Amino acid sequence: MSRILDEYLASNLQELKENGLYNEINVVEGANGPEITIEGERLVNLSSNNYLGLATNETLKQVAKEAIDSHGVGAGAVRTINGTLDLHVELEETLARFKGTEAAVAFQSGFNCNMAAIQAVMGKEDAILSDELNHASIIDGCKLSRAKIIRVNHSDMADLRQKAKEAVESGQYRKVMYITDGVFSMDGDVAMLPEIVDIAKEFDLITYVDDAHGSGVMGKGAGTVKHFGLEKDIDIQMGTLSKAIGVVGGYIAGSKDLIDYLKVAARPFLFSTSLTPGDTRAITEAVRMLMASTELHDKLWENGNYLKDGLKKLGFEIGNSETPITPCIIGDEKTTQEFSKRLMQEGVYAKSIVFPTVPKGTGRVRNMPTAAHTKEMLDRALEVYEKVGKELDVIS
Ligand code: PMP
């Protein structure tokens, strides 16, 4: 065993713990629904991305079991060898219809999807303009591509226009991309896609939208691009199958040429085993459900608005979220962490998010209501918020 590695790990762990940055992971006992059990305690769960409650949906469980019976538990190989099952083709055709694009390709996770697609499309002779609050998988995908990365101030269209102009007019780059989250998960704000498309047209930028938090939530379920009616204007739409869709995986939707190209150039497609049959079948069914009815989407928004109104009435600062994601801004890091701990002791599971994930002094507890919460659960959560808020002097 390496002594150098032992020392390296021990000193890093100690430093993280001393700085309060070591994350103790809670174990959920049983299913991840609107209520969860941790250490035997039943808690209202406001920390899951299972926005539509589909992770425990009975129909999806049933079709997954049937697919396991007919196709087995694993796909057996990478897509290009013999890991492309009829179930994958059916899923991808369904995803393309869902997104309003010519084609789509599924990956094993949303994270892996960003790593795959950005690297496949962009290279060291290119530049990527990237919103400063983009998700870690976008940041890593950009790094992997070896393109020049130019950070753009968050949703600052003047900054984007200026930096796009400089990059394009410099003549240094073969192509320039702008990449952004569709919905930003820390504050629940939405990318300004119509303005982005105008700037992209002016400078011939490639546009890439990661709609991990928008699919199932925005555009009556079809996502942020559909919400703005920009299916013909965004080159690359990325989404996860792990959040509103409730299962696991990610996808890229776009032109037939884009998808054909990813199937020969995206490394996780070429070198990592494909989604399992059970997952694939459940995802297809979930997407079909979203296309057939907006009932779950509508319930999600009803619950989101109910929680927001309740927290606002109690006197909490809830930011400017445009989606059901509801941050409750507490302030300093210590009080925020204490707040989340007290919520948990009182029966509400909502995680604190503090510096460096968000700016110093803007620590918040992030709430993610879902379609599966009942009014009784949300009322219970609001009662606990009131109690803890008064106790810690966050509200009067
Ligand atoms: N993009 C964004 C914006 C995300 O929030 C996440 C998940 N946190 C991902 C990509 C990665 O998706 P997955 O969890 O499906 O790998």
From TrEMBL:
Pfam families for the chain: Aminotran_1_2
SUPFAM superfamilies per the UniProt record, alphabetical: PLP-dependent transferases (SSF53383)
Keyword annotations: Acyltransferase, Pyridoxal phosphate, Transferase
Transmembrane helix keyword on record: no
Any one GO molecular function term: acyltransferase activity
Segments forming domain Aminotransferase class I/classII large: 43-383
Cofactor requirements of the protein: pyridoxal 5'-phosphate
The UniProt record lists the keyword Transferase: yes
The organism's place on the tree of life at top rank: Bacteria
Annotated PROSITE patterns: AA_TRANSFER_CLASS_2 (PS00599)
Subunit and interaction comment: Homodimer.
Family: Belongs to the class-II pyridoxal-phosphate-dependent aminotransferase family.
Protein name, entry field: Putative pyridoxal phosphate-dependent acyltransferase
Protein species of origin: Salinicoccus cyprini
Biological classification of the source: Bacteria, Bacillati, Bacillota, Bacilli, Bacillales
